[in-house]
Write a structure and sequence with these properties.
By secondary structure, the chain is α/β, with parallel strands linked by helices. The protein is built from 9 helices and 7 strands; from the N terminus they run E-H-E-H-E-H-E-H-E-H-H-E-H-H-E-H. The radius of gyration is 18 Å and the shape is globular.
């Protein structure tokens, strides 16, 4: 990380992918604001791990589906850090708040998901750019297959919300380019210690075996550290010229054709 990056806010960083991102940034000397919604103990555990790596930070609570709480979160960042160079939009609702088929999804579930994803990103970017005075990095965590396919039926609310978020990435990338702020999204494949672990154990096992057989060419699921490395890469000075992109971090799973059996694809 070769330019003057010192401070980051990572939403949903008490555990899982968000924690992996926070720790990878901390390894590079970045102070990290650890955001959580309900699991304060987990957030404090992440902060302790950040300090073990020789960096520092603080924990901040907010419901990112509420704009006024997002504003309060960034006010806390301003008080603690004085400014910001990195904002990572990672937080999402728990499975029960959105996981429902299109014909059964309630409007309350739809609104909650949109508010926690697209609206939260819109409001958070506006808040973050008030704290970024030089070069900066804004990164959103998405799941691109869910925004462009329709077969995982109960993912409809989250898939639609992520599609809106990805569109905002492109628009903000143009709006902020002249200020030296890049805006990108990373799309992890199935990742250990993430939403996967909220699914029934039988489903988890099926997913792991499916990808080990070759539906992910690297024959394993991703880890939070894998995603953290990709975030750190985008935060480097060498990534100055990359903006407005949706980048897969999936061990090659997005390259595998879903229309042919693996045996045929392998020749």
């Amino acid at each position: 990380m070769s330019f003057n990056i010192k401070r980051a806010l990572v939403t949903g960083s008490s555990r899982g992918i968000g924690r992996g991102i926070a720790l990878k940034l901390a390894e590079r000397g970045v102070r990290v604001a650890i955001h959580y919604f309900e699991k304060e103990a987990a957030a404090r555990d992440t902060l302790a791990k950040v300090r073990e790596l020789g960096s520092d930070g603080f924990v901040v609570q907010a419901d990112v589906s509420r704009p006024e709480e997002i504003g309060r979160m960034f006010d806390n960042v301003r008080k603690e850090f004085g400014g910001l160079e990195i904002f990572v939009n990672n937080a999402r609702g728990e499975i029960p708040t959105f996981y429902q088929k299109p014909l059964e999804l309630t409007l309350e579930q739809w609104d909650a998901t949109m508010n926690s994803q697209a609206k939260a990103f819109l409001v958070s970017v506006r808040e973050s750019v008030r704290l970024i005075t030089g070069k900066g990095r804004i990164i959103a965590i998405t799941y691109a297959p869910g925004s462009r396919t329709g077969s995982w039926q109960p993912w409809v609310a989250m898939g639609s919300a992520k599609a809106a978020l990805e569109s905002l990435v492109r628009y903000f990338a143009v709006a902020l380019a002249e200020r030296g702020i890049t805006v990108n999204a990373l799309s992890p494949g199935f990742t250990e210690d993430s939403v996967l672990n909220s699914l029934p154990l039988q489903v988890q096992d099926m997913v792991r075996e499916w990808h080990k057989t070759g539906w992910t060419p690297m024959k394993r699921l991703g880890t939070p550290a894998d995603v953290g490395k990709a975030v750190a890469l985008l935060c480097s000075e060498e990534a100055d010229w990359i903006t407005g992109q949706i980048i897969n971090v999936d061990g090659g799973s997005s390259l595998v054709c879903s229309e042919l059996p693996l045996d045929i694809q392998r020749g």
